[in-house]
Amino acid sequence: MRVTFATAEYSPIATVGGLAAASAGLVDALRRSGIDVDVVLPDYTSRDKGIIETVELHVPLWAGPATAKKIKHRQAGEITLIDAPGLAKSHPYLQPDGNGWLDNTDRFMRFSAAVAAFVRHTSPDVVHLNDWHTATALADLDPTPPSVLSLHNLAHQGAAGREWLDLIGPKSDHYEWWDGINPLAGAIALADHVVAVSPHHATEIVEDGNGFGLDGALQAKGLALTGILNGIDTTVWNPEHDRCLPAAFSAADLNGKILNREHLVNELGLTDDDSLLAVAVTRLTDQKGIDLLLPLINLLDEIPLRLAVLGSGDRILSEQLAAAANDADRFTFVDGYDEDLSHRLIAAGDLFLMPSRFEPCGLTQMQAMRYGTIPIVTPVGGLVDTVVDLDTQPRVGRGFVMNDVSSTALISAVHRAVRKCRGKQLENIRTRIMSVDWSWDAPAKEFIKIYQQISR
Ligand code: ADP
Ligand code: GLC
Predict the structure, then answer these.
(1) Could you tell me if 220 and 267 lie in one domain?
(2) pLDDT of 52-95, one tens digit each?
């Protein structure tokens, strides 16, 4: 079976958030299962080396010229990069000042038009689209090929002006939205199957008022909308063989985890005592609820806890965190996107804080559990599917689920964690969460079933 998989991010070539890891993890597992996958990604860097095949794509005038350049990447394997006007930039979405590029609509509409042209050129069995950046491809494919749309983040829909209705292709009427177009709404209507990135999120987004304005469109999909939990790359996230860590460890031998904590406390200049270390690794956006940590930081002199946050994004939030870190010995903040440090933090932590307002799936809580770091999470999205509360279900619990999304609920969950996570009990919880299988093998099988159903 041949699948065209179009995405705006792909690890390690273009990484902003979980979309990159989720795309690469799924494709890798699909390829291992014998599916022939053409990955189509924007060429953000105008690459001119290592190209093994070039195809000029037949796109409408406004979208071109567009070229598909196939490369063989050392880690990612064969990838098709789309070169079209405006796609190459220093960051996939953001200007250096943190605002989006002014031409993001044009850029990803052109990318989507190129994806449609690539599909016409290669006639795959299935087209798999991801998020709004690829969504208008289906407007320009008539008849609609067997198609899957993965929804990684409904907060971004790519809504744009009315003028696009005349441009994006013969099926543009499905994209009409108030006084303009909505790429995601159109692709939801046209795709044979829509996949939310966790089962719980699939149930949340069809509740009235909870689908980011698309609840009606999502409800209309009926059984053609399902949730498949993301996996993580368990070879990259493996505490026994992680080149970023000063010491290796495993569920059977946790000594290395203590060494990682000592090393990190030293590296970040945190107070050296035997209190628990809580960590967070995150994009700084409203979604992640990191502002809810601020009242907790004020309490760190009264709770036996230290806190280290690595994050990048919203400037106001990063300034608030930096100011809080200036005043506190038990809290440190690193502003930036740093993969190596993220591994060291997650390995060193005792607790992992994730107070998300919404979370379609979330990969970091799984990365944390794989490294024996106990998650404290809000009761939303994929966090519900992955974290079972230790106080309500002590035998199978994996972390602490907050009662609601608030600082008060966070502080109360931290208190529960501090009471419970000690001595032998802490070790048992660590061993349990480290042995859960978070690999992409099972999710890939579910996708293959969907591909088979829709391409029959
Ligand atoms: P989202 O995609 O909403 O940001 P996920 O939890 O799905 O959230 O995925 C985030 C991914 O990005 C994880 O692999 C995480 O380790 C990584 N990540 C997030 N922020 C940072 C950061 N500041 N530095 C390094 N890695 C980060
Ligand atoms: C999005 C979501 C996150 C999810 C990731 C990968 O960025 O915010 O919850 O894990 O996509 O699907």
Answers:
(1) no
(2) 999 999 999 999 899 999 999 999 999 999 999 999 999 999 99
My answer on whether 261 and 213 are in the same domain is no
State both tokens at 434: 């480290």
How far is the centre of ligand 2, averaged over its atoms, from the C-alpha of 19 (Å)? Answer: 6
Domain count for the chain, please give it.
2
Residue 415, CA distances (Å) to 125, 366, 372, 376 in order: 52, 22, 19, 11
Q: Are residues 172 and 99 in the same domain?
A: yes
15 plus 164 within the same structural domain: yes
- Kindly indicate the confidence band of residue 97, based on its pLDDT and cuts at 50, 70 and 90: confident
- Tell me how far the alpha carbon of residue 252 lies from the centroid of ligand 2, in angstroms: 31
Q: Which residue has the tokens 């930039």?
A: 89
Same domain, 121 and 224: yes
Domain-located, residue 426: yes
Best probe residue, ligand 1, of 7, 364, 373, 378 (max atoms within 8 Å of C-beta): 364
Range of the structural domain that residue 385 is part of: 255-434
187 within some domain: yes
Is there a single domain that holds both residue 198 and residue 302? no
pLDDT level of residue 98 (50, 70, 90 thresholds): confident
pLDDT at 247 over 90: yes
Give the 3-state secondary structure percentages of the chain, helix then strand then coil, rounded to 5. 40, 20, 40
Q: What are the residues whose beta carbons fall under 8 Å from the beta carbon of 158, sequence distance 6 or more?
A: 105, 108, 132, 133, 135, 136, 182, 183, 184
Please list, in sequence order, all residues whose beta carbon lies within 8 angstroms of the beta carbon of residue 293, skipping any fewer than 6 positions away: 280, 307, 309, 321, 353, 355, 407, 410
Q: Which of 108, 69, 102 is nearest to 85 (CA)?
A: 108
Mean pLDDT computed over 202-215: 96
